[in-house]
Amino acid sequence: MTGTKPLLATVMPDSASSRPRMPMAVYILGLSVFALGTSEFMLSGLLPPIADDMGVSIPKAGLLISAFAIGMVVGAPLLAVATLRLPRRTTLIALISVFGLGQVAGALAPTYEVLFVSRVVSALACAGFWAVGAAVAIAMVPVNSRARAMAVMIGGLSIANVLGVPLGAFLGESFGWRSAFWAVGAASAIALVGVVTRIPRIPLPDEKPQLKREIAIYRDRQVWLSVAITALAAGGVFCAFSYLAPLLTDVAGLSSGWVPWVLALFGVGALIGTTIGGRVADAHLFGVLLSGISASTVFLVALALFASSQVAVVVLAFLLGLSAFYTAPALNARMFNVAGAAPTLAGATTTAAFNLGNTTGPWLGGTVIDADFGFRATAWAGAAMLVLGLASVVVALRLRAGAPSRRVAGAPAHADPEQGAPAHVSQEQAAPSAASAPRR
After folding, report:
1. Distance between CA atoms of 79 and 61, rounded to whole angstroms?
2. Would you say 173 and 257 are in contact if contact means Cβ atoms under 8 Å apart?
């Protein structure tokens, strides 16, 4: 093995336990994701004031959410390839710095166009951080702890929904929407300190990663099915969530002061869902995907039917957060399982897939609103996307059942990454990565 093994040995001591302790560096990555996630999702509670200030419609303001998602879609694989042979820690430091500067640019934006560009730049940095950070997290845990490691990172998103997004909405309501961007800039600075001081230096491998070998994962139809499942699962939920604020005020009749609290409730559900999903997905990956996406579909249909009921909307916001983020660790782990030979591109592809959904979802929601179907129609449109996602899961499951047992490259013969793996088998042993490749 490479010279990275002593590093991993220090953060991952040998243990007979099937649930080894998570390395501190993974929690630091999750803390950094809090800042990223707050910026990504906070616009859901800021669309009305941004629209008023910039003199645009709410659907056009909603395109700022799509702009961020487009930047993530493009930036994840692009930056994963561009930084493939660069030191992981240095790359993370550079990306979180650029992200923070993007927040400052957004806070100072004089026009809608400048704000749009700042969102794209921030998204590019965010995408790169996600891709590299996910590869680092996966490289430091055993094969059967991948979903747990991703749950820690996704937990940063959940906490962003619990605290960051509602706080952003509160700041926007009280001090103007620009104050929310300043707050995220400050959070990015704190994250930068954590990355600099707590993320270990990971030596470059003796054999440099080969782009041709990593890109080979895209020949696998299961990889493309994973992209489709992730995009549809994310897009279906965020088709409705992106316009939750106007649905709460214009359809349910709640005052604007309720918006931060309902967004916080969505975040509480997301945090609970991430925790449960992260603990269950390693052993029951497809079960989590099927049950979680099915539940989200049911909740969106209920939201469309009962959008005028204030109690129903509040309860469903919580349940939708729970079901959506319950599936997130499984969606991430699934991609690393089918593309284990290229973990950096696997992380980038997952990030791109999530944000492909985050692009098409708000776009579809804005389209049905512009067509005068109303805000509640976004829930119907989202439910339709989720039905397609469920069909994709069924296809993936059938293909997997009819194919020879899948193993991550280099893993022991008895270790199926979708059925768990011995605790002592680390990701470094299971698959070569951008940070660590076996000598030949």
Report:
1. 27
2. yes
Say if residue 392 is exposed, middle or buried (CB neighbours under 10 Å; 0-12, 13-18, 19+): buried
**Which is more confidently placed, 12 or 276?**
276
Question: 37: closest CA among 196, 334, 331, 266?
Answer: 266
Which residue shows structure tokens 């490691």?
149
Reduced 3-state DSSP string for the chain = CCCCHHHHHHHCCCCCCCCCCCCHHHHHHHHHHHHHHHHHHHHHHCHHHHHHHHCCCHHHHHHHHHHHHHHHHHHHHHHHHHCCCCCHHHHHHHHHHHHHHHHHHHHHCCCHHHHHHHHHHHHHHHHHHHHHHHHHHHHCCEHHHHHHHHHHHHHHHHHHHHHHHHHHHHHHHHHCHHHHHHHHHHHHHHHHHHHHHHCCCCCCCCCCCCHHHHHHHHHCHHHHHHHHHHHHHHHHHHHHHCCHHHHHHHHCCCCHHHHHHHHHHHHHHHHHHHHHHHHHCCCCHHHHHHHHHHHHHHHHHHHHHCCCCHHHHHHHHHHHHHHHHHHHHHHHHHHHHHCCCCHHHHHHHHHHHHHHHHHHHHHHHHHHHHCCCCCCHHHHHHHHHHHHHHHHHHHHHHHHHHCCCCCCCCCCCCCCCCCCCCCCCEHHHHCCCCCCCCCC
Mean pLDDT, residues 234-255 taken together: 90
Average pLDDT over residues 85-112: 91
- Smallest CA-to-CA distance from 194 within 159, 162, 157, 156 is with 156
- For 375-426, how does the pLDDT look when each residue is reduced to its tens digit (9 = 90+)? 999 999 999 999 999 999 999 999 887 665 544 444 444 445 454 443 333 3
Please tell me the pTM assigned to this model: 0.69
Buried-exposed string 138-155: b where 16+ CB fall within 10 A, e elsewhere: bbbbbbbbbbbbbbbbbb
Nearest to 90 by CA among 5, 200, 6: 200
